[in-house]
Amino acid sequence: MILGAPDSGKTTLAKFMVRELSEKKEAVAYIDGDMGQSTLGPPTTLGMVMLDGPCDNMDGISPRHVYFVGSTSPRGHGLETVVGLKRLLERSRIDGEPIAVVDTTGYVAGGDALELKYQKMDLLNPRHIVAVQRDRELEPILRTQQGRRHALIHRLSPSPRVQRRSPEDRRRYRWSRFCEYFTSLRLHRIELRETSLTGTHHVRIHNRPQEHLEGLLVGLNDQDNFLVSLGLVETLDQAGGFLSCLVPTDADLERTRSVRLGSIRINLSEETDGERPVGSDG
């Protein structure tokens, strides 16, 4: 598991490790645990890809499984984050025992971040913890792991070539990924009598004006709760028992068994950044 603050080079290091291991013909699972700056699946998701041979370039590789968190930040979504990572790790081990490389978010400062990282490591039980830090910003997290059996802690300094990105740069990256995902759309209707609806604890849908739900990001999940497709709410009619949402034209939705409500709204008519938290009228 790789830990580090934003702009410490975590993802570059993770991909380097995956390439090196695959070159040695090791079976490798790369788990992308950064739902805000995701590189495998779209933003708001965690992804996993399996490699069993050399891979010179990981760009453009499609994830084998994707888990919908529903937010671009782990704040307020810690439970979904740790469950998703555990599910992806378990799925990677169905066909063998690959070496798993787990990338994480840059959320490392403060008590909530420390607790989330602690619970991640307790649940995933990594053999190696790689801490990339400029000063000693990760030491509060690492101290919680010093007594863990069989866990080796490796402290590294960031590369001097790491490029810092502003919050605006990060928003632009997410927005480009959303726009790429939702390039071509069709309307899809889901009968709620046949499909479970979860995530309502993040979104108050009772007596809420319909326009406040339009564009709400949802995850259409399969029977194992892995993502089939993202969708954008057009109409959510609980009395009528249906949900209509915009989905990518080429999405194969026959495997959909549940719908999970996310906690952000997407307005594709915006030119630069149409991502808003639920409850925002902007």
What do you see in this structure?
This protein has helices at residues 10-23, 78-92, 111-124, 139-143, 167-181, and strands at residues 2-4, 28-32, 45-51, 65-68, 99-103, 128-132, 152-156, 185-191, 196-198, 216-221, 227-237, 242-248, 258-266, 275-277. It is of the alpha/beta class. The chain has two domains: 2-156, Rossmann fold (3-Layer(aba) Sandwich); 168-277, Beta Barrel (Elongation Factor Tu (Ef-tu), domain 3), CATH 2.40.30. Helix 2 packs parallel to helix 3 (111-124). The longest helix has 15 residues, at 78-92. The two termini are 37 Å apart. The model has no long low-confidence stretch (mean pLDDT 90).
Oligomer: single chain
Order of helices and strands: EHEEEHEHEHEHEEEEEEE
CATH architecture of the largest domain: 3-Layer(aba) Sandwich
Structural class: alpha/beta
Number of domains: 2
Q: What portion of residues belong to β-strands?
A: 25-35%
Q: How would you name the CATH homologous superfamily of the largest domain?
A: P-loop containing nucleotide triphosphate hydrolases
Number of helices: 5
**Name of the level-1 CATH class of the largest domain:** Alpha Beta
Give the CA-based shape: globular
Give unreliable regions as ranges: none
Largest sheet: 7 strands, mixed
Mean pLDDT across the residues is 90
Indicate the CATH topology of the largest domain. Answer: Rossmann fold
- Compute the gyration radius: what is it? 19 Å
CA(first)-CA(last) distance: 37 Å
